[in-house]
Amino acid sequence: MNLSNKIETTNGVKINVEDLGGTGKPVVFIHGWPVNHKMFEYQFTELPKHDYRCIGIDLRGFGDSDKPWNGYNYDAMADDVKAVLDTLKIENAALVGFSNGRSNLYSLYGSA
User: Fold this and answer.
1) In a domain, 109, yes or no
2) I want to staple 30 with a disulfide (CB 3.0 to 4.6 A). Which of 7, 24, 82, 101 is the partner?
3) What share of the chain in percent tops pLDDT 70?
4) Within its chain, how far is the Cα of 56 from the centroid?
C-alpha cells in the first residue's frame, strides 16, 4: 500500500508524506538539502521486502510540501517532523536523517 498525503502541522504548514504502510518496524526518512524523500528510493524498494514500513517526509520548502516564507530553522522543521509522527501514531521507529535531515532529528530528540 502506498499512501502519499499531506499532513498539516500545528502552524498550518502542509508536509508531504509517503507512507508505504504495512505492519513492520517503521523507518522514517528525513532528507537533506536540496532534495526530497525520493532520494531514498532504493531503501523504499528493498526495506519493505524485509518487513519494514518506510515513511518518507518532504521537509517544508522541499518536494511537494508547502513552501512558506519563514520557519526554515531546525526547531520549526523538527516540529513538522513531530507532527507527522504524531499524526501517523509512529512509535519506536528507526529515524534516518541525511545532512540537515540529521540536524532536524537532533533538534527533535537531542544529540544523546
Assistant:
1) no
2) 101
3) 86
4) 5
90 is a domain residue = yes
Helix 100-109, helix 74-87: angle, nearest 10: 70
Strands of the chain, DSSP E: 3-8, 14-19, 25-30, 52-57, 94-97
| Domain presence at residue 112 | no
Phi first, then psi, for residue 109 (nearest 5°) are -120, 0
Q: Is the pLDDT of residue 3 over 70?
A: no
What domain range is 25 assigned to? 3-104
CATH number for the domain spanning 63: value is 3.40.50.1820
Burial of 32 (0-12, 13-18, 19+ CB in 10 A): middle
Strands 25-30 and 14-19: what pairing?
unpaired
